[in-house]
Amino acid sequence: MTVFIPKNAYLTIVAACVRFANKRIIKDDWLEVSGIFIGRNEGDDVHITKAYPIMHQKLDKDAVIDQYKWSDEDYEALSIIDDEAFSNNEFTIGWWHSHPGFKIMMSHIDIKTTLSYQTNNPLAISLVFNPERLAKQIELPEKKGDPEKQLEGDPGFKIFRLDDVNKGIQASYHTVDFVVNGFDTNEQLAMLTQKFIIDITNMFPKDNMLKNYETLTNNRINELNSLIQGTDEYMNTLMRKGESSRAYEVLENQTRDIKKFVAETQKKIEAIRRFMEYLEYKERAIIIPSVETILAEWDEIVGRLDKTLKEIAKKY
Ligand SMILES: [Zn+2]
Questions:
Q1: Which of 236, 283, 298, 307 has its CA 20 to 30 A from that of 157?
Q2: How close is the Cα of 99 to the center of ligand 1, in Å?
Q3: Within a 10 A sphere around the Cβ of 281, how many other Cβ atoms?
Q4: What tens digit of pLDDT does each residue of 42-56 get?
């Protein structure tokens, strides 16, 4: 009776949820995110293969918790993903959503949603994630005023199943055992994922994503160009001063600095490409090709880098 979660599915949930609830956003504006799981049942076990983010709540200060409303487009996304899964002998085995900054449990609305999955599939699961629980490793008290419980190696979520679907929305629920694959220990999982939260907070914005990546890429391209130009000018000055004996050493040093800058930027570019997996399904068709166009400019200049450096070297 165990749910197996691959690392990437877990990180997808973390990223998609943290994007709308992190330190850069005031807590009052944190939004819930929801999505689905694709996978298969094996005996009593559930094997998740992928988590898909579907939607986030609209900002509404008066809303009570769990006022997430799926649009037609969101249901359409679900049916496309489910069809695709079917051709791999898999299906939608459950759903997940976030309780950003508040207790992990199932609200009435959550029970209703879970019911829609579990009625057809008794093993269907409902995962509830609170990014703050993961970041701070604390469990919020049942009642206001009670102490917070300190946690260790906690992934920030629980998985639930309804006790008896025949009770409908009156059904009570219980937690289900799970394993997150891809980490050595729970402590390692918590530590690495807390670092991941920082990357997501800094580099996976909820709004203006394209503008953001465009600015980053353009800044990096400009900086690289000025490093290259600076090298050329430096070499030129050396020659003019008759210090050609230093040329080799200077060029080596400059090249090393440029390569270091490129490697550092490359890490960010690769991170952005990975982040594309954490987009909501309906965003993908627009954002991914645009991001690829933006990043292609960087790829191109880096692709030419060795040649450019050789040309400079040849001059001196
Ligand atoms: Zn909920």
A1: 283
A2: 6
A3: 19
A4: 999 999 999 999 999
- Ligand 1 centroid–CA 193 distance in Å is 22
User: Which alpha helices (H) appear in the chain, and where do they start and end?
Assistant: 7-18, 72-86, 108-118, 131-136, 186-203, 209-240, 247-275, 284-303, 305-315
Residue ranges per structural domain of the chain: 2-203, 209-315
Who contacts 29 (Cβ-Cβ below 8 Å, separation ≥6)?
59
Query: Rounded to the nearest whole angstrom, what is the distance from the C-alpha of residue 172 to the centroid of ligand 1?
Result: 14
**CATH number for the domain formed by residue range(s) 2-203:** 3.40.140.10
Residue ranges with CB less than 5 Å from ion ligand 1: 66, 107, 110
Q: Of 36, 256, 30, 58, which is closest to residue 132 (Cα–Cα)?
A: 30
Question: What's the distance, CA 208 to chain centroid?
Answer: 16
The Å distance, Cα 32 to ligand 1 centre, comes to 8
Using the mean position of ligand 1's atoms as its centre, give its distance from the Cα of residue 162 in Å.
14
pLDDT of 142-190, one tens digit each?
A: 888 888 899 999 999 999 999 999 999 999 999 999 999 999 999 999 9
**Contact criterion met (CB below 8 Å) for 20 and 33:** yes
